[in-house]
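USER:
I wish I could look at a protein chain and see how it folds. I am handing you a single protein, as its sequence and its fold in token form. As I understand it, each token names a local backbone shape. I hope you can help me see how the letters and the tokens relate. The protein I mean follows directly.
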Amino acid sequence: MLSRFMSRLGLRWFPLVCMAALVIGLPVGCAVLEHKERELVFRIEPGTASWYSGLPADVQEFDLKPASFKSGQTLHGWWWPAQQKDAPAILYLHGVRWNLTGQLFRIEQLRALGFSVLAIDYRGFGQSQGDLPSETTVYEDARIAWERFQVLQPDPAKRLIYGHSLGGAVAIDLAAELGKKAAADHVPAPVRGLVIESTFTSLADVATAVANTSLPVRWLLSQKFDSIDKIADIHMPLLVVHGLDDRYVPPRFSEQLFEAAQEPKRLLLVPGASHNNSMSLAGRTYRQALDSLMQSKMPAQVAGPSTTRPGNS
């Protein structure tokens, strides 16, 4: 999650460090800077979250090791089937800092709404094995999880992709890839819809907002997470959720993503909600928004990848 991500990330001084590295211009300095940037972005906390009290008995744990992984790399995940057989399912993609043990409270809420949930830790998080994550590797991990997700819920009309905070950027990237492929093949996207919560337009935008700087942060960061440039290509129903009292990621970023997306779409701004509690605070309204997303009409055919992005800035 991006909770505490901004306050602890050090982004108030990070653009200055980036600029210094560019001025120095040493390749080794750039490599060191990129590694430090990734440490700051993902800010992985080892072990289990302090509020984690154990895994429910009916959660199935698994490990994935595709052929593309190097020796010692694995993805660890949870599959929590709903009580109702063949219930709709959610692919859950979390944000930074906390591993799956820190996400269980939100996963429990989604399952209580009647969904089966597949959730993974990216390489380097929790019990997943691997080096320090990067934008590239978390995108790859989401695609690997998607392959397992299709097997667990084979009906495209009963699939949702969900991303929280930085996981929203990962979810948008996955949805855009699926949407563009569907557009190229002139078929519907293989998923009912996308849910993004407490997320942002790009890492540069949120870094600029927090650092309150006029430096060209977009050019300095190696980790882009440019969701605003991808959201119009998802070609599937969209639900955007943000707490109006989010002190880490300004709600205006979700509003900008919403404006840049194509219909059908819905924006749910939750009064009084912080970065992490929109789902619980919105209550019935959140449930109704998910129900509407599941009932929305899937486009029968799409013409092709979009060339214009309304509201993109």
